[in-house]
């Protein structure tokens, strides 16, 4: 069973930076995109950023200009550089690997807390 292992969450002051990383423990076929989602307290999970198999990037409006998603093409790995963090960025962040057939893969989630 392939797992997505996340790292890099934590507590940071507003205006600070964090980098989230995620890597798959094995091979995943027919990948459509890699991405990050987040779930703020009491809210639904939402897309933060994604990068397709051909390198097209998509960002939520709330993070454009502050967050950057990147992938390691030598393995199944994706990172999210988060700058100028705001208290409203506080959430559990989940790594996602979307596939063309079958069930998508999800990480276990990592907590990001931004203090004001």
Characterize this entry briefly.
This protein has 116 residues and is mainly β.
Q: Which properties best describe this structure?
A:
mainly beta; single chain; 7-stranded mixed sheet; 116 residues; 4-stranded antiparallel sheet
Question: Low-confidence stretches at least 5 residues in length (pLDDT < 50)?
Answer: none
State mean pLDDT (0 to 100 scale): 96
Number of strands: 11
Range of helix content: under 10%
Rg computed from alpha carbons, rounded to a whole number of angstroms: 14 Å
Name the overall outline: globular
Query: Helical segment tally?
Result: 0
Largest sheet: 7 strands, mixed
Question: How would you describe what is shown here?
Answer:
This protein is mainly β and 116 residues long. It contains no helices and eleven strands. The protein has strands spanning 4-7, 10-13, 18-24, 31-39, 46-52, 57-59, 67-72, 77-82, 91-99, 105-106, 110-115. The strands form two sheets. Strands 2, 4, 5, 6, 9, 10 and 11 form a seven-stranded mixed β-sheet that branches. Strands 1-3-8-7 form a four-stranded antiparallel β-sheet, with no helix packed on it. The protein is globular, with a radius of gyration of 14 Å. The model has no long low-confidence stretch (mean pLDDT 96).
């Amino acid at each position: 069973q392939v797992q997505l292992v996340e790292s890099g969450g934590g507590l940071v002051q507003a205006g600070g930076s964090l980098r989230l990383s995620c890597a798959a423990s094995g091979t995943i076929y027919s990948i459509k995109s890699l991405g990050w989602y987040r779930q703020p307290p009491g809210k639904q999970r939402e897309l933060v950023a994604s990068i397709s198999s051909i390198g097209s990037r998509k960002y939520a409006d709330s993070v454009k200009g502050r967050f950057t998603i990147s992938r390691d093409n030598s393995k199944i790995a994706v990172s999210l550089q988060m700058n100028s963090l705001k208290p409203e960025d506080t959430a559990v962040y989940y790594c996602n690997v979307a596939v063309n057939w079958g069930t998508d893969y999800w990480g276990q989630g990592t907590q990001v807390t931004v203090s004001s």
